[in-house]
């Protein structure tokens, strides 16, 4: 198990050391392929639905369907990553998605069938992501795991941009069916790559000697009880959720905020891109170049930067007149806030260190389902607020309230820190078979 009980390295691991681990390469490659394929497929389906129905609502719902399984059944579906051998969950999920997406590419398929197939494809995302994340923590020892987390976070931002751009090119040059076929091909290649590159391991619950014959609902409940009942895990997940609630809220009002800053609706994309760009750069700086001990010390400053940057960006209209200069300053401050998003790296490492491998999948589902939920809630609340007051006021409140709200989970995380001997409260509270969340 990665991280648990390992002595922290004095220096950060290198990318070469991470890629030297044979099993990491297919895990990383499949993540890159599936992300690119998913984003280009979202673009293709959204455009296809809009062309057929001329309905912006249906197009938006099509885009949102892929996130629905995480909210409705993420913790339950993620438990499969603990009940079954993880390599089988990964390979089986990709094979199923390749077949389903290929079926979606059939020209003239009825719209209700397309939406049903999209929902079925999306149901395989929670078990796949839970198995991939848990297995990555198993195969990477020590600081290699933290560096891998920063690397995959950066690649996620790049892959999304490639997927969106490639989807647009395919739609112009070919058709939505071509984009969907390419997405199906990414799943097929990923499945073959993992079949050849991953070791065969037993199901984690069997390997840990956990009780057999339990239902999926019982396994899901055990992961939820662990997260809620273990102080350190509760503090980690609480900090993730609270910060995500307020950091992501401004995205929901990006368009009216842009118009408040300057008369250029097309600049909304720049406003949305500034924070993720900072997160990508911060992930590289903190994950690759900061020693492990320094990362831990930077956690609180990074959390404060992520919310404080948003607060300062919202106050720019009080200092500068509306126009290009004010907009550029806001972009710089949002980029700085994105740098603070690198706080997820030490949090993810703490997450994995706190739990045995056998419970990572189901607890991962709990954490990610909550993240999707609070991000959506934050965007909705920001939208409601922007109908009542100026968008910049809503953003300022997000930053200020967020800074106050993270104090409690930060203090709880400090109080629950492992002792000098390396023991972790999760192991004491739940016994050797128990486990907890994976990285979110």
In one word, what is the shape? globular
Counted beta strands: 0
Low-confidence stretches: 1-8, 420-440
SS summary, helix count: 22
Structural class based on helices, strands and sheet pairing: mainly alpha
Order of helices and strands: HHHHHHHHHHHHHHHHHHHHHH
CATH class of the largest domain: Mainly Alpha
Q: Helix coverage percent of residues?
A: over 70%
Number of domains: 2
The Rg value, from CA coordinates, equals 22 Å
Strand content: under 5%
Average pLDDT level: 80
Write the CATH architecture name of the largest domain: Up-down Bundle
Please name the fourth-level CATH homologous superfamily of the largest domain.
Answer: MFS general substrate transporter like domains
Keywords: Cell membrane, Membrane, Transmembrane, Transmembrane helix
Subcellular location: Cell membrane
Domain Major facilitator superfamily (MFS) profile: 18-417
Protein name: MFS transporter
Question: Could you characterize what this model shows?
Answer:
- This protein is mainly alpha-helical.
- The protein folds into 2 domains: 15-201, Growth Hormone, Chain: A (Up-down Bundle), CATH 1.20.1250; 218-430, Growth Hormone, Chain: A, CATH 1.20.1250.
- The protein has 22 helices and no strands.
- It has helices at 15-19, 24-53, 56-65, 68-78, 80-83, 86-104, 111-123, 125-139, 144-173, 176-197, 204-207, 216-229, 231-247, 254-261, 268-289, 292-315, 324-340, 344-353, 360-386, 391-405, 407-415, 425-430.
- Helix 2 packs antiparallel against helix 3 (56-65), helix 12 packs across helix 19 and helix 13 packs antiparallel against helix 21.
């Amino acid at each position: 198990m990665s991280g648990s009980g390992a002595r922290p390295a004095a220096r950060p691991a290198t990318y070469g050391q991470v890629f030297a681990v044979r099993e990491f390469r297919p895990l990383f490659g499949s993540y890159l392929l599936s992300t690119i394929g998913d984003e280009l497929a979202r673009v293709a389906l959204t455009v296809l639905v809009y062309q057929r129905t001329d309905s912006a609502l249906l197009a938006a719902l099509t885009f949102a369907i892929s996130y629905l399984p995480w909210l409705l059944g993420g913790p339950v579906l993620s438990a499969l990553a603990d009940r079954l051998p993880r390599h089988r969950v990964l390979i089986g999920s990709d094979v199923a998605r390749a077949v389903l997406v290929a079926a979606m590419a059939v020209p003239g398929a009825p719209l209700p069938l397309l939406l049903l197939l999209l929902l079925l494809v999306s149901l395989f995302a929670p078990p796949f992501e839970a198995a991939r994340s848990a297995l990555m923590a198993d195969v990477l020892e020590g600081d290699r795991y933290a560096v891998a987390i920063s690397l995959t976070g950066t690649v996620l931002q790049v892959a999304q941009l490639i997927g969106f751009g490639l989807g647009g090119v395919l739609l112009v040059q070919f058709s939505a069916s071509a984009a969907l076929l390419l997405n199906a091909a990414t799943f097929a290649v990923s499945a073959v790559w993992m079949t050849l590159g991953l070791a065969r391991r037993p199901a984690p619950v069997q390997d840990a000697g956990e009780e057999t014959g339990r239902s999926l609902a019982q396994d899901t409940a055990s992961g939820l009880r662990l997260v809620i009942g273990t102080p350190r895990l509760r503090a980690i997940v609480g900090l993730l959720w609270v910060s995500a609630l307020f950091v992501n809220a401004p995205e929901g009002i990006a368009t009216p905020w842009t118009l408040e800053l300057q008369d250029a609706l097309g600049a909304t994309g720049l406003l949305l891109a500034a924070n993720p760009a900072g997160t990508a750069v911060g992930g590289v700086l903190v994950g690759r170049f900061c020693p492990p001990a320094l990362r831990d010390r930077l956690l609180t400053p990074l959390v404060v930067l992520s919310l404080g940057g948003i607060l300062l960006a919202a106050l720019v209209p009080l200092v500068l007149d509306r126009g290009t200069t004010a907009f550029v300053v806001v972009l710089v401050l949002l980029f700085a806030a994105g740098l603070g998003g690198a706080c997820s790296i030490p949090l993810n490492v703490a997450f994995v260190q706190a739990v045995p491998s056998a419970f990572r999948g189901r607890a991962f589902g709990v954490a990610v389902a909550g993240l999707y939920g609070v991000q959506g809630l934050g965007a909705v609340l920001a939208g409601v607020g922007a109908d009542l007051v100026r968008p910049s006021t809503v953003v300022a409140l997000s930053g200020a309230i967020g800074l106050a709200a993270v104090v409690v989970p930060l203090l709880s995380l400090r109080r629950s820190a492992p002792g000098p001997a390396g023991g972790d409260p999760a192991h004491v509270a739940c016994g050797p078979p128990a486990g907890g969340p994976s990285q979110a």
